[in-house]
Amino acid sequence: MSEDLYLPYGASKEETYQALLPRLQVLTAGEPDLIANMANISSALKEAFEFFWIGFYRVIDDRLVLGPFQGSLACTRISYGKGVCGTAWKEGRTLIVPDVNQFPGHIACNNLSRSEIVLPVKKNGLVTAVLDVDSDRLNHFDETDAFYLEKICALVR
Ligand code: SME
User: Could you give phi then psi for residue 29, rounded to 5 degrees?
Assistant: First the structure.
């Protein structure tokens, strides 16, 4: 498969996710390495949506440790229950944060980040990583992002 992403020009968010999802399914199905798949998924999502920051944190012992990402430098370790990422890990559910300044304990890796969505990646019911997406716009993420990004997270087991 070609590594180029040909996405419909001027497509809606939903149309873009619908075009992207089968491409990512094919791409990840042929590659057993978790890091390689996380890296390509981060790249594809950044290219498709021009998110401010997107990346994975992997659960390693008692911390989330920075994994493949696209964007500016980021915090490398996050404790269980801390920040949006650590809370999504602890609660095992997707968190949509319309305004990061209103989220108690939000960890600001970059002050330009205004809103955020964090989704758990689960294996056998256990959170093994989280996918974190940041926007420099307020209220950027909604249930459409949650719906498709959850399907994308299911590709990185
Ligand atoms: N804002 C996150 C930290 C990770 S960075 O956004 C890349 C949090 O509160 O957990």
Answer: -65, -30
Q: What are the structural domain ranges in the chain?
A: 13-153
108 CA: nearest ligand 1 atom = 1
Categorize the per-residue pLDDT at 35 as very low, low, confident or very high, splitting at 50, 70 and 90: very high
Beta strand 115-123 with 53-60 is unpaired
Predicted confidence band of residue 8 (pLDDT cuts 50, 70, 90): confident
Q: With cut-offs at 50, 70 and 90, classify the pLDDT of residue 142.
A: very high
How many angstroms separate the alpha carbon of residue 99 from the centre of ligand 1? Answer: 13
- Ligand 1: distance of its center to the CA of 30 in Å? 30
For ligand 1, the distance from its centroid to the CA atom of residue 2, given in whole angstroms, is 32
Nearest-CA residue for ligand 1 atom 5 is 109
Q: What is the third-level CATH fold of 13-153?
A: Beta-Lactamase (3.30.450)
Q: Name 120's bridge partners.
A: 130
